[in-house]
Each structure stands twice: as structure tokens, then as C-alpha cells.
Amino acid sequence: MKAARWSGPHGVRVAAVRLTGAHRIWASHAGVPPDVRDAFLVTARGALVGRGYHATVADLATAVDLADLVPEPDEGDAGG
Q1: Which residue spans within the chain are E strands per DSSP?
Q2: Are 42 and 52 in contact, with CB atoms under 8 Å apart?
Q3: Cβ distance 48 to 29 under 8 Å?
Q4: 19-43 pLDDT tens trace
């Protein structure tokens, strides 16, 4: 899965993550169903926002204002 990341105001960061290893364990505690393979991880200044893991865009929208998010450039896109 290609990394997808967004940032927003007040240090909010959103990342699309594959639910394996520790991400799977934390997502399970956050209520993400076991059949979901990927989720959105939401943090602000390093701390989880709300439940932290959101299985759908609709669920993500309950934690952050999607209109405030801007895509972060891929690490390979750094100009120079």
C-alpha cells in the first residue's frame, strides 16, 4: 500500500495504515472490525485523536474536519 498522509490544524495528522502487528492490536481496541485490512490513524502532536483508528472515511469525518486536511508530499517527491 502506498503511504497516504494528510495534515491539518493544531498538529493533526492522518495516515492510512495497513492493520498488521501493533496497528491491528490498537485498531481492535478502538473497535475496528477484524475483517478490515486498512484504516485511518489520527493523531495530534503524537497523541491519538478520539479512538485513533477509523475504518471508513465517514468514521474519520466524525473525528476531524476533512476540509481542513491537506495531503503531505510523498517522501520521494521532495524537490531539490
Answers
A1: 4-7, 12-18, 38-44, 47-54, 70-71
A2: yes
A3: no
A4: 999 999 999 999 999 999 999 999 9
**Residue 80: predicted pLDDT:** 44
The DSSP letter of residue 76 is G
Contact status, residue 28 vs residue 54, Cβ threshold 8 Å: no
pTM of the model: 0.87
State the pLDDT confidence band at 77, using cuts at 50, 70 and 90. low
Exposure on the CB side of residue 49, measured as CA atoms within 13 A: 23
Complete edge-to-edge strand list for the sheet that includes strand 12-18: 47-54, 38-44, 12-18, 4-7, 70-71
